[in-house]
């Protein structure tokens, strides 16, 4: 029936019709904004064309975007200091290894975000290194890791 019209001609005509349609919609619904932009009253804002100075500000405030992440780092630092103090205190008071483990379980229970973070392995290393300083409190890496899951007495 329409053998006189090729696909190329059809697609060209359809493309022109679509462009014409969207121009009508643009003028009908956004004519005020378009007039302001053309007169210079309003700047054209494109979010993908941000300046590099704004990007550097965003990088500086990344701690504001992810506060839990940085709180976890601070918690891990506090926890490592508390583990060192606990090992020293347990050694001075001649507490048993079981009492030392219970004390560590209580400390670790106070930092649930460190438990689920990637810093858990680092804390386990600190526990092992601190326990090696005191022969009666010696813990292996697997024992240190099991302290996170064990019940608090």
Describe this structure in words.
The structure is a single chain. The chain has 153 residues and is mostly helical. The protein is built from 8 helices and no strands. Helix content is 71%, strand content 0%. The radius of gyration is 33 Å and the shape is elongated.
Question: Low-confidence spans: pLDDT under 50, at least 5 residues?
Answer: 54-62
Give the helix tally: 8
Which radius of gyration do the C-alpha atoms yield?
33 Å
What's the story with the biggest beta sheet? none
Give the N-terminus to C-terminus distance in angstroms. 88 Å
According to DSSP, the number of beta strands is 0
Shape: elongated
| SS strand fraction | under 5%
Q: If you average the pLDDT, what whole number results?
A: 83
List the quaternary state of the chains. single chain
Fraction of residues in H or I helices: over 70%
Class by SSE composition: mainly alpha
Order of helices and strands: HHHHHHHH
Main traits of this protein?
153 residues, mainly alpha, 8 helices, 0% strand
Task: Describe how the helices and strands are arranged.
Layout: H1 7-39, H2 52-60, H3 62-65, H4 67-92, H5 97-109, H6 112-115, H7 120-132, H8 141-146
Gist of the model:
This protein has 153 residues and is mainly α.
